[in-house]
Design goal:
The complex is a heterodimer of chains A (236) and B (254).
Chain A: H1 12-45, H2 50-65, H3 68-87, H4 95-122, H5 125-133, H6 138-153, H7 155-168, H8 184-195, H9 199-233
Helix pairs in contact in A: 1-2, 1-4, 1-7, 1-8, 2-4, 3-4, 4-6, 4-7, 5-6, 7-9, 8-9
Chain B: H1 3-6, E1 24-35, E2 38-49, E3 53-57, H2 64-71, E4 79-84, E5 87-90, E6 103-106, H3 118-128, H4 134-147, H5 163-175, E7 181-185, H6 193-208, E8 213-216, H7 220-226, E9 229-234, E10 237-241
Parallel strand pairs in B: 3-8, 3-9, 6-7, 7-8
Antiparallel strand pairs in B: 1-2, 1-4, 4-5, 9-10
Helix pairs in contact in B: 3-4, 3-5, 4-5, 5-6
Classes of the chains: A mainly alpha (236), B alpha/beta (254).
């Protein structure tokens, strides 16, 4: 059987490398943004003020319950048309990449927020009380006492969701990105389209995805188990 | 326990001092508190002067912990007046800002922050509340840990400490803020018998050094050693006295 040695030939190898870099870029940028967003949303959900709490709850409700693909189709196809009708101007071509990053960040951010909320509820209430008797402000208690412990308690769940976010970068397939900005799966499809060989590029990206998932999983699990060792044994 | 601390009656530790000479640090006047219509405290009054140690005893569920939570601003109360260092805490009002960090509380569990080293536990409030520079906070933290005999543990995490060590770190953490009064809520109740003495010894040393303390405890003998005044909390009210015999009512009938 002959599949043709396309993947390691130019220009296909270059496309693939470009795709790998784009996948890394998309997952790291959206993952980091999602982590910050998740923290901020968790903070809002735990305040006593009704307005911000309601807004944060609604955000989590929407993005945890809507599937990614229709969401991406909506923001990259429906939204520009709405925009054109309302303002009379077209979306710039590069906007699609930012919309993709925004949707991935919102999706993972909502999930991070839900995981973190569970972690916050898992921190012993006395921890906050003792911090209050030490004169710490509500903000200081959150940043130095509650959130660090909450993140450690749910560290394995956060690590899993981070990897899920990396895999979600393939959702870029439904977004009309310029060829140079295609991520790994998009580049594999492009190579297959040019060469009519599907087996090689798809096998190649499967190997890269496995390496990325297992590699980051190894690091994250090490972080998670170290982080947990402290909070679990040191509950008293 | 060292002999010189345990054999001396508490009253002898402040020889020749008139009982009403030092200023009043903490005064509770007819404090009442209900939990869902069930009265827990129905008129608790007590007075604690500077340098005194007041032992607060009472049967389980009599509201000892509630008294501590009210004084430290962790629980609201329904009526009465709580005065700390001349600042009034009123029923239903927010805890006065001036008192933040000036009432040290030691819980039954040490409640150390598990994600921080021992030293970071002690210096957290010095850095984030008192706004001391890191080096100064560190110096102060080490000094307090030394006083409690746990300075060698400064870089360890709470999970690796024994219960007694944790409780001593918790005391150092509270003392680092130089509180007006230290409230101890059964500090040895959760410790193995072998670890109780090392904590009691430190509390006695603090008492000798003139630290103002409100000590909630079930250990009557320890209360008699450490305290200069005694209060018995029963059926929502409190009798205060300088007579150690006040606590006799707690003794189980033989």
């Amino acid at each position: 059987m002959h599949f043709g040695n396309y993947v390691f030939a130019e220009p296909y190898l270059g496309w693939l490398v470009r795709g790998i870099l784009m996948t890394l870029l998309i997952s790291v940028v959206s993952g980091t943004a999602a982590a910050l967003l998740g923290l901020w949303v968790t903070r809002l959900r735990l305040t006593s003020r009704r307005g911000p709490r309601l807004a944060a709850d609604t955000f989590v409700m929407i993005f945890r319950n809507l599937p990614l693909v229709p969401l991406l189709l909506f923001v990259t196809f429906a939204l520009p048309r709405l925009w054109l009708q309302v303002t009379g101007r077209a979306f710039p071509i590069w906007a699609d990449l930012y919309l993709l990053l925004a949707v991935l960040s919102a999706d993972s951010g909502a999930n991070f927020a839900e995981i973190l909320r569970a972690g916050v509820l898992g921190v012993a209430p006395q921890q906050q009380e003792v911090a209050r008797t030490m004169g710490l402000s509500a903000g200081a208690i959150r940043w130095h006492v509650v959130f660090p412990q909450a993140a450690r308690i749910v560290a394995p769940a956060l690590a899993t969701r981070w990897i899920q976010n990396m895999k979600n970068s393939t959702m870029a397939l439904v977004v009309p990105l310029p060829l140079g900005l295609l991520e790994m799966a998009g580049q594999a499809e492009r190579i297959a389209g040019e060469t009519f060989s599907w087996v090689q590029p798809l096998t190649a990206i499967a190997v890269v995805y496995l390496l990325l998932s297992l590699g980051s999983g190894w690091f994250l699990n090490r972080w998670a188990s170290r982080a947990q060792a402290r909070v679990q044994a040191g509950a008293a | 326990m060292p002999a010189d601390l345990t054999t001396r009656p508490a009253a002898d530790r402040h020889p020749g001092r008139a009982p009403d000479e030092p200023r009043v640090v903490l005064n509770l006047d007819q404090i009442t508190k209900r939990f869902n219509e069930r009265p827990v405290l129905s008129g608790v009054s007590l007075t604690l002067r500077q340098g005194e140690v007041l032992a607060l005893c009472g049967p389980s569920g009599s509201g000892k912990t509630t008294v501590i939570r009210i004084i430290s601003g962790l629980a609201p109360f329904d009526s009465g007046l709580c005065t700390i260092d001349g600042t009034a805490v009123n029923a239903g009002q927010p805890y006065p800002r001036r008192l933040y960090g000036s009432v040290g509380v030691i819980f039954q569990d040490a409640c150390l922050f598990p994600h921080m080293t021992v030293l970071a536990n002690v210096t957290l409030a010095l850095r984030k509340f008192k706004r001391l520079p890191a080096a100064q906070a560190r110096q102060r933290g080490i000094a307090e840990l030394e006083r409690m005999g746990v300075a060698p543990l400064a870089d360890r995490y709470p999970a690796t400490l024994s219960g007694g060590e944790r409780q001593r770190v918790a005391i150092a953490r509270a003392l680092a803020l130089d509180p007006l009064v230290l409230l101890l809520d059964e500090p040895t109740a959760n410790l193995d018998p072998g670890l109780v003495d090392e904590v009691c010894e430190r509390i006695l040393a603090l008492a000798c050094a003139g630290t103002t303390m409100l000590l909630v405890t079930h250990a009557i003998d320890f209360a008699r050693q450490a305290a200069t005044a005694f209060a018995l909390l029963r059926e929502g009210t409190c009798q205060c006295s300088r007579d150690p015999g006040t606590l006799d009512h707690l003794r189980p009938p033989r």
